[in-house]
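Appendix B, example 12.
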Amino acid sequence: MILINLLPHREAARKRRRDAFNASLVGSALAGVLIGAIVYLWYQNQIGEQQAKNAFLQSEITVLDNQIKEIANIEQEIAALTARQKAVEDLQADRNLPVHLLNEMVKQLPDGVYITGLRQDAQTIVIQGVAQSNERVSEMLRNLSNNTPWLSRPELVEIVAGNVTLSPRDVRRVANFNLRVRLMRASEVQQQAAQAPAQAGSAAAPARP
């Protein structure tokens, strides 16, 4: 017996293919949405973790900033205390400076030079006097510059020729001078004394060929 299919089989096959294609589109769309949701959630999780790390780092930075401020305040307090301690030590060490000044003036004053005035302004000593000649003043400047650790940087401010009447018949020419010199602190003298052996050793060292 011969069977003849009179139904539109081509239309049915085309419909089946179309339904399968639509089903695959829907499945692909659902898979894409699912994958997108998974990726979105993963990124959100990563962003949340990074934000938590950033917040932790920011809190630690704030703590470190506060510690740095405290350390800076402590350093300032230490510097202030050190300055006060040095000021007290300088005052204690400088109590004998007037004695050293007068002692050095006696030692370094050449013959023929007389002091008429002595004034101290901080570490600067202003000396006024009379000398028999300009050479005596130059000798005094050399002595103050080279022969004493307590006085440094002598500077001649003024020298004026004048006369001194010793008797009605004895009138002599003199040099009235005014000079400045720096009085060294005890700590500076000690520092120079400590540096002197090293400088002497370097000066005495033979030159290498």
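The helical segments are 9-93, 97-108, 134-146, 186-204. The beta strands are 113-121, 124-131, 151-167, 170-183.
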